[in-house]
Structure formats: C-alpha cells, structure tokens
Design goal:
8-stranded mixed β-sheet, Rossmann fold, alpha/beta
C-alpha cells in the first residue's frame, strides 16, 4: 500500500469526483468506489429519509450507518461531524441540537466543503459551518464538543490512533462520540488490501474489529458500547476484478466478515492522567 500521503491524495481525488456527481451515480458505487456493481447501493448505505432534518440534496449515499440516530444529541449541544461530505449528518444533527446549538463539519476535500456550504446557505442553516481539515489534525479547539459523529470515514484515515486522540482532545470532559465505520473479523486477501479502489471504497482500510475497539479502550474512553452491527456482503462481481473464482471461494470459506458497526464512547468527566490523552 502507498504512504499515508499517497493514500490521502488518492482519497481526496476520489471524493472530489464524488462531490461533483449526483447521488444516483454514487449509489452505483461501494461507498463511493468505482470498483462496484450498479446493484451495490444497499450494501453499506442506510436510509436517512425518516430522520428529522434529512436533506436529500446533502445525501450522497456514502455512509455505512446512522450515527446521528444513536448520538444522544441534546438541544444546545455543539456537534462535530468528521468527514462531513455534502452535509447530510450535519443537517440531521442540526435538527437535534436546534437553533441554540452549533454543528461543525470537517472534511479534507475542498469540493465537499464547497458543496456542503452551498447546501447550508440554500436552506438557511446559519448555525452549521464547514471547515477544511484532516481528522488527524482537527482545526478545532480542545474541550469544545459535546458530541462527535462520523459516518464511514475513519477507515479512510491512515493513522487511526491519531484520529481517536484528536477526538479525545476536542470532546469536552463528559462528551461522547457515536461513530459508524467498517471493521473486519478475519483477514482480507492481499490483492484486496493492495487495491486502491477497495481502499477508497471503505474496505481495504478497515481495521480488525477487536483492534478497533481495543484502541478506543486504550485511549481512556469510557462506557464504550456497540450501538449497531451489520454484516456487509460484497457481491462476487466486485471481487472478480481482483480475485479468481477459486480465490473468491477461498475467501468466502475463510470466515472473514466485513461489518458496519456504530460504536459509542465517552470522554471521562473528571481529570485523568493518561500520558497520551491527558496532562500533555
């Protein structure tokens, strides 16, 4: 696999392309990846249409969960969305936090930021803003967020430890996150891991589920729980671009599972002294 900077460049290019397209084009992709069948629209995406604040113009069909549905957002909360895309989860969060709250979306792709800002202005969402930045180095002050959400984005971040350290830093003491992401049980074939399209498609960059949850525990988050878990089935015609028929059969028999999870965690409300997350 490429270096971290190569990966970021690849992701930016792909999601810039997506930002300039329409939802029906993205739904013919695997989390925005051009690797996939036109019948893959229901593999990872969830139906937002029944949630208060849903804005179709901001829904590019790129998520793998409904983190805002589980995020326990209250009126007046400051909510941060990591990897905010065209603004879909931000606008759902805005409906929860109300006019007295504030929502900030962070995305590293300029075209996504531009599209989200157009959407916010179009609908007069004055308490929603979008900032260009990377999750590993958030353009945000420490201890300022009540809630952090993210939808199928952290798997695209090369340094996930650094990303969760930033989440910890930005959350207020007692604040919490609800994050939907892709994780693995078992191992992917090397040809899949090395495929750029499968990385931007939210598969090849996924961590092992146990490792993902262990990382969150290691960084001093509390009351960690899985709010939702769903097995993702990738159609054979996607894998056939990288694997032979026999290799696909071996993969299916290996017991490896690709899962969408929504995980919840809290930053401790009292002072701590974890050398990585406190007392710096």
């Amino acid at each position: 696999m490429e270096t971290a900077e190569d990966i970021k460049k690849m992701v930016k290019e792909k999601y810039s392309e997506i930002a300039l397209s329409e939802k029906d084009q993205n739904l013919s992709s695997c989390c925005g990846s051009s690797c996939c069948t036109t019948e893959v629209s229901n593999i990872m995406t969830e139906d937002y249409s029944n949630l208060m604040g849903y804005t179709p113009d901001a829904d590019l069909g790129l998520g793998c969960g409904l983190p805002t549905q589980f995020a326990k957002i209250k009126k007046g909360d400051v909510v941060i969305d990591l990897g905010s895309g065209a603004g879909n989860d931000c606008f759902i969060a805005r409906a929860e936090t109300g006019e007295t709250g504030k929502v900030i979306g962070i995305d590293m792709t300029e075209a996504m930021i531009d599209r989200a800002r157009v959407n916010a202005e179009k609908f007069g969402f004055n308490n929603v803003e979008f900032r260009l930045g990377e999750i590993e180095s958030l353009p945000l002050s420490s201890d300022m967020a009540d809630v952090i959400v993210s939808n199928c984005v952290l798997n695209l971040v090369p340094d996930k430890r650094k990303a969760f350290l930033e989440i910890y830093r930005v959350l207020k003491p007692g604040g919490h996150f609800s994050i939907s992401d892709i994780v693995l049980v078992g191992a992917l074939p090397i040809k899949i891991l090395q495929a750029a399209e499968m990385y931007t498609g939210c598969v090849a960059g996924a961590m092992a589920k146990d490792e993902y949850l262990s990382l969150i525990h290691e960084l001093n988050f509390e009351n960690i729980s899985l709010q939702k878990e769903k097995l993702i089935t990738i159609p054979d015609d996607i894998f056939s671009s990288y694997l032979t028929v026999d290799e696909i059969k071996d993969f299916k028999e290996s017991g490896t599972g690709i899962y969408s999870i929504t995980v919840y965690g809290e930053k401790p409300g009292e002072s701590c002294c974890n050398k990585e997350t406190c007392c710096n």
